[in-house]
Write a structure and sequence with these properties.
The longest helix has 26 residues, at 34-59. The chain has helices spanning 8-23, 34-59, 67-75, 188-200, 208-216, 270-279, 311-328, 337-345; strands at 88-95, 101-102, 107-109, 115-118, 122-123, 129-136, 159-162, 172-175, 223-228, 235-241, 288-292, 295-304, 334-335, 354-357, 362-363, 368-377. It is an alpha+beta fold and 378 residues long. It is extended, with a radius of gyration of 29 Å. The strands form five sheets. The protein has a six-stranded antiparallel β-barrel with strand order 1-6-4-3-7-8. Strands 9-10-11 form a three-stranded mixed beta sheet, with helices on one face. A hairpin with a 5-residue loop joins strand 3 (107-109) and strand 4 (115-118). The protein folds into four domains: 8-60; 88-175; 201-292, no CATH class; 296-377. The protein is built from eight helices and 16 strands. Belongs to the Mu gp47/PBSX XkdT family. Residues 203-279 form the Baseplate J-like central domain. Residues 309-378 form the Baseplate J-like C-terminal domain. This is Baseplate J/gp47 family protein.
Amino acid sequence: MPFNRPTLTELRQRNRSYIQSELQTDGSLLRFSNMGVISDVDAGMAHLHYGYLDYIALQSTPYFSTDEYLAGWAALKSVYRKPATAAMCQSVAFSGIAGAYIPGGTILNRDDGYQYRLDNELTLSSDGAAIGSITAILPNPAEDSTGGGEIGNADAGTILTLDVAISGVQSLATANDAISGGSNIETDSSFRTRMLLAYQNTPQGGNDTDYKSWALSVSGVTRAWVVRRLAGGGTVGIYIMCDGNGNGGFPIGTDGISQLEDWGAVKATGDQLRVADYIYPLETNTALIYVCSPIEKKINFIISGIPNASSETVTGINDAIDEVFFVEGKPGGKILWSSLLISISAVPGSAGFILEQPSNNIQMAMGELPVRGTVTYI
């Protein structure tokens, strides 16, 4: 039976009753009497002690622990919080007068003020152009406790401006590729989930849970699924997602194996390569690990019965669909039609809706992951 912590009011009443009992008087304590004030002060201190004991109880188990205690429990299983990572881009185009020099470390600004640093010095070629790589500057943790890594991600074609003018160099530069790879400091919720996974599953030297845990240990990776014999006997497939990366959560890179692998299969790039390289020294000697991006499968919806749904209801239904896809979706898995009905029906203003399409469970093909497409109201 759980302990019922007394409230401050209950403690005050108890203290007054105890004092009256010891004084052996029938009269009640006056509101501002010395005994009444002492009684309330003692009750307040006892209430603080109860609160501290509650806090200690939370930190005494991995399941409820927070902050440094959560990190301590996780460290016992060699699980550590994933730090923020900076977004990067390998192809940023500069232009200007041939021979102009751009020092390494030059700062570039995005239109919203987020800053990037040029990785290496550049000299404009005879045609007045040069290609360089940049890395986002992570914000001060005192100003942004999340690390601010995700906000550094940006689409290909993003325009950047030199922070300080450089003679002979145009002030505007263009990111030819997407600026990607940025991720925030891991949240307590995600950190606790990985820690509990380690406590609940004893390492088996390469079972499904091991591969999933290893993949989730890579910064930026938020979901992972393991498929046995994806490319035949002796192979293991790991599908990953990097939610919040500005690409709909789908990893930016190409599928393949670790660049550390001697065997001649196709080597991964980008996010897939980071995961493959991390897992390579941990995997069994006989396994060949393919790290892959799920295949985006857009699911269109037709909803009747609420043709004049408000914008709030429409947003709520979109969020409800996304939540079902996030929770139940996995490459090659199945989305239950009943789950969509239950989730949508909980949205305010959705009363009377009829889900015309899809009209049954949604079965994904191998590697496919569901994503909300268009939602049409008739």
